[in-house]
Amino acid sequence: MDALNGWLERSPRLAGLLDDHLRNLTAPKVLLAFLAVFASSRVLAYFRNLKIMNYVPGLRPLFHPLWFPGAFLPSTWWNMGIRYPWNNRTTLYKRFRSEVISLVPLISGDPSFYTNNLDVARQVIVGGHKTSFVKPEYASRILLLWGMNLLAADGEMWRKHRRILGPAFSNKLYEYVWNESVQTFKEMVSNDGWSNKKSIDVPVLQRTTFKFALFIIGKCGFGFPFVWSEPPTAPDGTMTIQEALRLTTDAFLTMIMVPKWVFKLPIKSLRKLQAARDQLTDFMQSQVEEKRKDLRNGMSVRDDVFTRLVQANENEESKYRLSDEELVSSLCFVQLGKQIGNVFIMLFAGHETTAHTLAATIGFMAYFAEIQEEVHEHIVSVIGRSHDPTWDDFSKLDKVTAVFLESLRLFPSGHVMIREAREDTVLNIPGSDGDEGTRTIPIVKGTQVVVDMIGVQYNPRYFDEPEKFKPSRWHGVPAESEAFTAFSVGPRACLGRKFGMTEAIAFLTMLMREWRVEPLLSVGETKEQWRERVLDAELVITLGVSDMPVRFVKRD
Ligand code: HEM
Ligand SMILES: *[C@@H]1O[C@H](CO)[C@@H](O)[C@H](O)[C@H]1NC(C)=O
Ligand SMILES: *[C@@H]1O[C@H](CO)[C@@H](O)[C@H](O)[C@H]1NC(C)=O
């Protein structure tokens, strides 16, 4: 364009002619001209991108499946959509005979490499300042993908945050999580009226698992005073904090994507969200104030995630200090371009994934009755029929752990991990089974690499019959084993892995000891149809199963 302008300035006569010509154009013609310019610029960009991607074979969709608008449109023949890697989980990489494929969109989104290979994943998911790959800011800021990055746009920031939070994740915390999970389960049974029933129909199991997981992260990670029986609205008509949290985390995507002023429009559901957000912000601010006061007065406080966040904020000398912004103010986590507060990230990351996986696990138990019986007997043999299980029992309940891990493998709730090359570098790609040698592809600065977690978990290189539910693969495998990869791998892997497993194993143990779970079929539905309907993925920010209808039957 600059070149054209320069040229026109130097040739006034021609510019005049062009001017006349333009004046004669009608609106549709102008539009057409724009379209033609746009189309040719896209075509040029497309060929440039193919070159950048080294002509690695792969997909050539109109829109990137993780970007506007592709991510929000259904997966159909003209749009990959966010479901594509799920729909094609057993065929995608086979079709291209490679564990790294390229994705070059024609209209919107950056070209990316997609991989289902762990060696490649390990090259891009690394922490620290030496790495060539970073989490792109947009991945944590805007949509879908994993807000959870400990605010780490670069390696140094990530280290700082991980160092602040890491020590809170100790055995002492896990024991507390275990205790609270057992107590909360009991509270649920007595408050939700399960105690005197022989069977309970639960149309959407996720309502329970989400409430449970939010409860545990709120209580154990933040020390929030949650009570299971508390109704969603207080007597004075204001919603409770639990309810406000529930509403805002459910509408997380809306809250991040939609500009603030929209919430001021007279639309009831948006107004309600706004009220929830306001209440939550007030609540968080008062919690921070209180914690600050306690810390300043030298009171003894629980060493949890929240305390550490506030402490880091207090400690001005420390080079790991968080700004107020980093801590909570961005709790109003709205506008594009603003980071989401660490507090909120931890609340969100700390419950969505676990809650989804719990629902999937219980769904698999309902479907595979025999495996369920085996797990039930295992539970009774480890903890008996009447005592509350203790934290010491966690490591002995390996068959419960196995069904949880296998469900998470088949429905990896963290379904994508995105990294961007911050300098020119290379990726080493191991050869497929037949050929030994490693290939190297150059990676240009700014190129994205997407670790397709669904692809990894369904990769036959790592699992035989990967699409089958076989919890026995995890029998005798320690809970921390690197063989289990759905919490990511390496130094940057999930910080809450043991936290999430602890609460999940406690919940499943309590549930399956006393209750048998069955599919809750709709009228005329077979068990097989139930499986197809329910044990299917829903993908948004995290991946889960569809609304899960089950029946709990009390065991004698
Ligand atoms: C089934 C449960 C969970 C799954 C499948 C899961 C999965 C993951 C994955 C795949 C990552 C890496 C994301 C990336 O690198 O882009 C991650 C990171 C993280 N997770 Fe989890 N997670 C779970 C539970 C939790 C819980 C309960 C907490 C908190 C209590 C938590 C806190 C975090 C944090 C803070 C990070 C960022 C770590 C870092 O950047 O160093 N997660 N998780
Ligand atoms: C992906 O799945 C769709 C159906 O969901 C199918 O039509 C398409 O051929 C698949 N593509 C690949 C590469 O396997
Ligand atoms: C967990 O419960 C056990 C037994 O009730 C108790 O001895 C222990 O101190 C509790 N631990 C924590 C961290 O709450």
TrEMBL record:
Residues engaged in binding heme: C494
Pfam family, one: p450
Key word Oxidoreductase present: yes
UniProt key word Cell wall biogenesis/degradation: no
InterPro entries reported for this sequence: Cyt_P450, Cyt_P450_CS, Cyt_P450_E_grp-I, Cyt_P450_sf, Cytochrome_P450_Monoox
Gene3D superfamilies, sorted: Cytochrome P450
Cofactor: heme
SUPFAM superfamilies in alphabetical order: Cytochrome P450
Keyword vocabulary terms for this entry: Heme, Iron, Metal-binding, Monooxygenase, Oxidoreductase
GO molecular function, one term: heme binding
Family: Belongs to the cytochrome P450 family.
Protein name: Cytochrome P450
Species this protein is from: Macrolepiota fuliginosa MF-IS2
Organism phylogeny: Eukaryota, Fungi, Dikarya, Basidiomycota, Agaricomycotina
